[in-house]
Amino acid sequence: MNILLVDKGLETADASAVRALAARAEEQDGTAPLSGQTLLWLSAQASVVHALAHDAEGALVGYAQVDVGGDEPSAELVVDPDLRRRGYGSALLDAVAQVAHDRPAAEGKHAAPSHGAYSVWAHGNLPEAREFAASRGLEPARELWVMSRDVTPAVGTVVPGGGAPVEPATEAEVEYPALPDGTRLRAFEVGRDELAWLDVNARAFAGHPEQGRLTRDDLQARIEQPWFRAEDLLLLEDADSGALAGFVWVKVVDETGGELYVVGVDPDSQGRGYGHLLTAVGLAHVAARGLPRAFLYVDADNVPAVTTYLRAGFETTARSVRMRSTRA
Ligand SMILES: CC(C)(COP(=O)(O)OP(=O)(O)OC[C@H]1O[C@@H](n2cnc3c(N)ncnc32)[C@H](O)[C@@H]1OP(=O)(O)O)[C@@H](O)C(=O)NCCC(=O)NCCS
Q1: PROSITE patterns in the record, alphabetically (predicted)?
Q2: Which residues contact 201 (CB under 8 A, 6 or more apart)?
Q3: Which of 12, 91, 108, 182 has its CA 20 to 30 A from that of 102?
């Protein structure tokens, strides 16, 4: 077995091989081993190190990506479903530990020395991943939830007697929630709103390890994605000053559902019910796009956010666990 470390964007063929491997694992495991951000970083210029595991014939059998841009290196790791229990996962984890040891959060602007500590995400919290991580001395440190709910029939459609309407809504029938006086809602404008959005995003997610450190380049990379539509990133602003108070960003990659990709409220505007409002706006927007379900990712210990989503009718449908090593 051969592990190759690459610290620039992968060649197209390697990136395709990783995507194919991740797709095979998802089919087998019922959960995607690599997150959307990790897939974006396969071929982009980013603060990540790629570890590619090949068999003797040179076929890709496993992959890990180590994000060294944060406070502490964090990785995602996958082994071909047909080739597990042969030590590939362990070899990749050794490579992750080595990267963490050699480059402890080297490029993070706000990085503190992590003394070789690192973590690995176990998406879906699969039993084999838990066993694997436990066998390697990793411990659960952070839990991320997928929460979802149906949006068919349309949110905002008033149903007499509370019964379920029979017809799914068309775009024209979806009612967006009423806005408080003095506020207005409009779509993001590319080329105009980037800096204001980044500022509110950084302030709203100041305590969040990934979302809070999104850069202009990260935002641009999202804007250039095929799924990006400016009209799906809705800005709530003060009607007089135009100051951005919060936003809800809906991401749609297929017909199965719409993701409430990011909901953020400026700390100065928190406590006014804008979180509930923007969640309801996001749900209406998913319905307006004709999609049957809405889903989102949230930190399990983010009580204000989880409470907001529970009250909006979301349920927890999947869990990912960050498994942490304290010392490489
Ligand atoms: C988790 C994963 C990366 C393990 O890869 P792997 O190549 O099978 O791992 P290894 O062969 O190096 O296994 C090392 C040890 O982990 C434990 N382990 C791994 N899979 C296990 C399973 N299904 N049941 C029990 N223990 C398991 C064992 O102790 C194993 O040693 P052993 O085979 O000598 O008993 C792989 O199952 C995978 O890709 N899962 C989906 C993605 C994922 O969840 N990634 C997050 C990892 S934290």
Answers
A1: GNAT
A2: 211, 212, 214, 247, 262, 264
A3: 12
